[in-house]
């Protein structure tokens, strides 16, 4: 049994050579604690490793947030994924874009159980009195000065604030095709 656990950890670490040293160190510490019989500490270390990996995944999703348009600034919110725990989990990235007089908030949320329910609303947008806008090949709802779309039936994009043209331009900068492969 011990040989299997060591082999499983070695395979996991070998399959992810780009992981930060903190992750590999924490996983090694968890394994050592387990081997020493300290189950509580092993679980703490595994939880910590999971939080480090979640932060890496959040950072990877944040790469899809477009750069600020000329004359604008962008500030990325690093705390959005933590709030998703209360909504069923998943990964999120959010940024605020400002130009001094206008503010736009753009959020991308992936693999959250509540997001999939949005697919039905998008499919029935006209019956719900909402206007559908195309951004590239993707459909977005335009309602109450908010642009909302669903990519690959599991990744929600929401943008609000500013004027409609700026929202459409900003959202149009997202690489939807690459975003579909996020988390697969």
Q: What report would you give on this structure?
A:
The protein has 184 residues and is an alpha+beta fold. The protein has 2 domains: 2-60, no CATH class; 63-180, Protein Transport Mog1p, Chain A. It contains 8 helices and 7 strands, in the order αααβαββααββββαα. It has helices spanning 2-15, 21-35, 39-62, 80-84, 113-116, 118-123, 164-172, 176-180; strands at 73-77, 91-98, 103-110, 131-135, 138-143, 146-151, 155-161. Strands 1-2-3-7-6-5-4 form a 7-stranded antiparallel β-sheet. α2 (21-35) packs antiparallel against α3 (39-62). The protein is elongated and about 60 Å long. The two termini are 30 Å apart. Residues 1-20 have low confidence and may be disordered.
Amount of beta strand: 15-25%
Q: Can you summarize the main beta sheet?
A: 7 strands, antiparallel
Classify the fold: give the CATH topology of the largest domain: Protein Transport Mog1p, Chain A
The ordered H/E elements are HHHEHEEHHEEEEHH
CATH architecture of the largest domain: 3-Layer(aba) Sandwich
Q: Which strands sit side by side, in order, in the main sheet?
A: 1-2-3-7-6-5-4
Index terms:
184 residues, alpha+beta, Protein Transport Mog1p, Chain A, 7-stranded antiparallel sheet, 8 helices, 7 strands, elongated
């Amino acid at each position: 049994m011990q040989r299997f656990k060591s082999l499983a950890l070695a395979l996991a670490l070998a399959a992810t050579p780009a992981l930060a040293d903190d992750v590999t160190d924490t996983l090694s510490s968890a394994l050592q604690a387990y081997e020493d019989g300290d189950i509580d500490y092993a679980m703490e270390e595994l939880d910590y490793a999971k939080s480090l990996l979640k932060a890496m995944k959040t950072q990877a999703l944040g790469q899809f947030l477009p750069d600020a348009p000329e004359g604008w600034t962008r500030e990325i919110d690093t705390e959005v994924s933590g709030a998703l725990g209360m909504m069923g989990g998943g990964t999120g990235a959010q940024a605020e874009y400002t130009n001094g007089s206008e503010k736009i908030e753009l959020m991308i949320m992936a693999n959250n159980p509540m997001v999939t329910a949005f697919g039905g609303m998008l499919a029935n947008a006209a019956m719900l009195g909402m206007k559908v806008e195309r951004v590239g090949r993707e459909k977005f709802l335009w309602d109450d000065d908010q642009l909302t779309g669903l990519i690959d039936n599991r990744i929600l994009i929401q943008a609000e604030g500013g004027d409609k043209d700026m929202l459409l331009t900003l959202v149009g900068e997202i690489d939807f095709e690459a975003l579909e492969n996020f988390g697969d």
